[in-house]
Amino acid sequence: MTSNGPEEYLPESELYSEADGSAGKTMCQAKTRKGEPCRNKALAGQDFCAMHSSVRNGEEEEDNIPEPHLIENLSDLLSMMHRRFRGEYNVDEHGLDLEVTEQFRPIARWIYRKYWRVQVSGIENVPAEGRALLVANHSGVLPFDGAMVIMAVQEEHPQPRLVRALVLSLFFQLPFTAPWLAKTGQVQASPMNAERLLKNDELTLVFPEGVKGIGKPWSKRYQLARFGRGGFVRVAMKTRAPIIPVSIVGAEEIYPHIVSLKTLASILGLPYFPLTPTFPLLGPLGTIPLPTKWYIHFDAPIPIPEMEFRRSEEPLLVTKISNQVRDTIQKNIYRLLKTRRSIFW
Amino acid sequence: MARKKRSVLITGVSHPWGRNLVPLLEEDPEFDQIIGMDFRKPETPFKRVEFFQVDLHNPLIPELLQVAEVDTVCHLMFLDTYASNEEYFDQNVMGTMDLLAACAAGGIERVIIKSDTKVYGAESLNPNYLNEYAELRGRHYHRYIQDRVELERMMDRFSRQNVSPRLCILRFANILGRAIETPETRYLDSSVVPTVIGYDPLMQFIHEKDVLAALYHTIKCDATGVFNVSGEGALPLSQVLRIGGKANLPVPATLLKFTSDLWRKAGKRGVLESIPIEAGYLKYACLGDTTRMKEWLRFYPQRTSKQAVIDFYEHLRIRRYMPKKTRIRSDPLSSEKLQEWIRSRRRASDYLTDLIETFNKEGEHDQ
Q: Where are the alpha helices (DSSP H) in B177-278?
């Protein structure tokens, strides 16, 4: 039946393009540090996953003469820009854009290796696949500790994975910051978002102290604040995800937060307004963090999956596990601090 | 076993959604009786639908529902407007409540209502994906969203007070398509698309054909409850505009709100006025969790959000090369009717000639 009525369509085959340009199904071709094949999915149109593509490029650069490669890189960059200009890229359901994330890796790697010289232990406790909830202590005025945990898993783990950090909703209200955070794989902190991430078998990072931890004054450094209301335990129990306590040492001293100006903070609508020896005295220069030496320790996972509990036991169990995680993190912080000779090396 | 014949009532059949859904039902022999209702005459006649030009307040509706033994009502009548319009509110909200009351009186089993995920509101504190139990925080700046939210609240109260009819509410994500004009299509089709500076929200889309398929599927199955219906995946607004090759105009949120308010007061229907989507929806994501749609409604849209966007913009590109809609056109249904009429006439005249011939022969015999 053909007609030229207003609601009629042209034939389906002529108009609908079924191809979506979404590859993503092929696996990464690279070998991990242990020599096993990588289990990550490859980037669209490439043979390697996000973790390995840059490593591969780096290796090839050493073998070949650099000049022709530069041109090749430039044309790669141009074709990527052209492709992105036409909107031909994929983001995941929380807005993670791997190509954009890749652009920030060199800077993050420099900070990780050269500026804060992060020393990682217990990386083998992070599972190579499947869901897990990383729980860490929060400090340092600005959330650089999250970025460094992400880099630790990417740089040190034999099977690099992208950690999805849960970020304070405050940062998701800021213009320019909000879209950038989403594109680099961070998700707004909320129990429902955490549940969704874990159900998708993501490695999720959470800071239960939240703003209480990050805006802590200098005098309270390395003393853990209250662990929220135990929401992270409830999510882990619901999704049967193991909890990995993560202790971070060194982030507390990047900004010596001496006084918090409460009235100014409330006027600006911020949770805290820090006064450090350099900020706001030196203006923008004062926002440069101190080059402290960092230590990150991943502790053995607390196995939620095997736990059997009745519904009525849940609130008690939540408190128990929450305290257990908190004690483990605190204990490891003290252990790392015991051997630390100086803040800077 | 003889299948149970079904009788359905569709409201808003003269408006695009009802008009496009009706042919699907007409083709299906399961639906024995289809009753159409609208306050406006349809542009083209129906094949099987019994059409009544009445509005939703008509006191005869309960009786009609009883006599026709209607089992399912599919309520599609919803007028989207930007200006504050009492008449539209009267139809959208009060009309629906009258219809629901009529359904309760007429002993209807199930009422299907089309709604929108925008009722959840775009709030910075919302989780990325909202399930059906989430609070409705749709802001009251916009008449369209305001009516939807108010209607949803009334329906919630109604379903708590009445056991029957059971309500099935489908909350659709941003609808894009070729034949249908929605606030989203108007917004994405504007020559310069205003966005909020420094924000890039994720958006979900569903193709118009999937919307019709979802409605058809829901009428056929026996699902009740609230469902978010959307294509798979979500994409940032910036990517949507890149796919469409549209220029965007980043504007501060407060300015955008201010200008669109002014524009609306001036009664203009321009770009700013077509912003579906208050500044809030251009700042923060408002996405529906479609787990219930897949697990309980068992409906799987054909196109992902991205495919819906691609198809929408592809159609926009070829639209200007297509011939204009002409006034002179013949209705395919009436040509069928014409054939039928000719055939019946011919049969009748043949019969008559036969009769005359036999009479003449008998007459010859007598002589």
A: 183-189, 208-220, 237-244, 253-265
The answer to whether the Cβ–Cβ distance between A6 and B179 falls below 8 Å is yes
Orientation angle between helical segments A314-339 and A231-239, nearest 10 degrees: 110
Torsion of CA A161, A162, A165, A170, to 10 degrees: 180
B127/A193 Cβ within 8 A: yes
Interface contacts A/B by beta carbons within 8 Å? 105
Element (H, E) at B39: none
Mean pLDDT of chain B: 85
CA B118 to CA B145: how far, in whole Å? 7
User: β-pairing, A187-188 with A164-167?
Assistant: parallel
Q: Which residues contact B50 (CB under 8 A, 6 or more apart)?
A: B33, B34, B35, B36
Cα atoms in the 13 Å half-sphere on the side-chain side of B189: 20
Report the residue from B19, B235, B314 with minimal CB separation from A7.
B19
Contact B234 A93 (CB under 8 A): yes
Average pLDDT for residues A228-238, to the nearest whole number? 89
| B312-340 pLDDT per residue, tens | 999 988 887 887 776 676 666 777 888 88
The rounded mean pLDDT for chain A is: 82
Classify the complex by whether its ipTM is higher than 0.85, answering yes or no. no
CB A27 within 8 A of CB A42: yes
pTM confidence score: 0.81
What pLDDT digit, counting tens, does each position of B176-190 carry? 988 888 878 888 887
